[in-house]
Amino acid sequence: AYVLLNSNGVPMEVKPGDFLGVYSRDNGHHSHDDGPDPHSHEAIENAAGPKLPVSFHSPDEEAHAGEAVEAQRLYKEVRVLCWVMTAPSNHEKKAIHVKNTWGARCNKLIFMSSQTGTNSQSEIVF
Asked: How many Cβ atoms sit within 10 Å of the Cβ of residue 86?
């Protein structure tokens, strides 16, 4: 049997027969438990974005306590403008996830698109 430590440091027992099936990795050393994992522009061009909203972990979680302190300090001292080029085909599958993840760290987040108007579902103004 193998003993693995997860991120919480709690030992996990894995039987030898289960190890390769559950923890197998592709050539890029990625697990296949989370669906497609494209590694090139061509592979990601028509890929669908995550099905559920992507967001940061809560600062109330023990494993993430205090990790945003430096980001909050820098947010007040350094102004960051994020300019994101997008297209209508990416508004729902990619741009909304940019807005909900790293875009939240920007003082000003601007999306530029070839289509004008407002997308009320994602609340991104183009």
From this structure: 18
- Residue pLDDT, tens place only, 11-35: 555 555 554 554 555 555 555 555 6
Measured in whole angstroms, the distance separating CA 33 from the mean position of its chain's CA atoms is 16
| Contact call for residues 57 and 100 (beta carbons, < 8 A) | no
The torsion angles phi and psi of 75, rounded to 5 degrees, stand at -60, -35
Note the pTM of the prediction, 2 decimals.
0.46
Kindly report, residue by residue over 64-104, the tens digit of the pLDDT. 777 778 878 888 888 888 998 888 888 777 888 888 888 88
Place of tokens 């205090």: 66
**How many CB atoms are closer than 10 A to CB 111?**
21
Q: Please count the other Cβ atoms lying within 10 Å of the Cβ belonging to residue 101.
A: 14
How many C-beta atoms lie closer than 10 Å to residue 25's C-beta?
Answer: 10
